[in-house]
Amino acid sequence: MELQDILRYVTYPLLGAGLGSMTNWIAITLLFRPRKKILGVQGLLQKRKGLIAVKAAEIIREYLLNTNELKKVMDKDKARTGIDRLVEKTLAIVPRLGRKIFSKALREIAYKFFFDDEGYVKKEILELALNDSDLEKIVVEKISNYDISELERIIKKASGAEINFIIWSGGVLGFFVGLVEVFLPF
Q1: Which of 11, 50, 73, 119 has its CA at 20 to 30 Å from residue 109's CA atom?
Q2: What one-character DSSP code corresponds to residue 183?
Q3: Structural domain spans, the chain
Q4: Which residues pair with residue 41 across a beta bridge?
Q5: What letter would DSSP give residue 118?
Q6: Could you tell me if 114 and 79 are in contact, meaning their C-beta atoms sit under 8 angstroms apart?
């Protein structure tokens, strides 16, 4: 075996690995950079930040956080305690003798009004304070107000291992492509 063949067996896979890693790194970097348009090219996040914020808000509202989900996690005991305090405060002006009767009746009415048959706070009550479109607006506003470098940091923090996997898998794939090229006749 000649030196040229040995170099080919080593060079092609290493070159493929390097190119595979580099192209994946460039592709991931182009998600975030350039932040300002250069020769008509701009990072995907910067270019589509508004649309990404709206889509993320829709997904969060539809699948993760909406009034149905809030209803499930709202502390029923705290809500009942709040109603009890409100009833006691409201009835402070009623004479002591009638207070107990009014207190029990008013609590029962309030419980019927605030809680559904399963004991959860009614969706309609939650929506008085915060409805699904309000939640969506909050998410859109939060994402829109983030600086792109801060969004990049958040995304990389949340998915750093996966980003590195993508870069390295490009290198591994490139290595195998280079290995295949070694055995192709030229």
Answers
A1: 73
A2: T
A3: 3-74+120-182
A4: 38
A5: T
A6: yes
DSSP 36-72: S-BTTB--HHHHTHHHHHHHHHHHIIIII-SHHHHHH
pLDDT digits (tens, 9 = 90+) for 142-182: 989 988 888 889 888 999 899 999 999 999 999 999 999 99
pTM (two decimals): 0.62
Q: Quick check: helix, strand or coil at residue 119? A: coil
Our CA dihedral for 153, 155, 158, 161, rounded to 10 degrees, sits at: -90
The pLDDT tens digits of the residues spanning 11-46 come to 999 999 999 999 999 999 999 888 888 888 889 888
- Residues 6 or more apart whose CB falls under 8 angstroms from that of 24 comprise 166, 167, 169, 170, 171
* Residue 111 near residue 122 (C-beta atoms within 8 A): no
Token look-up 């808000």 returns 57
Q: Which residues contact 89 (CB under 8 A, 6 or more apart)?
A: none
Amino acid occupying residue 103:
S
- The span from the CA of 69 to the CA of 157, in Å, is 26
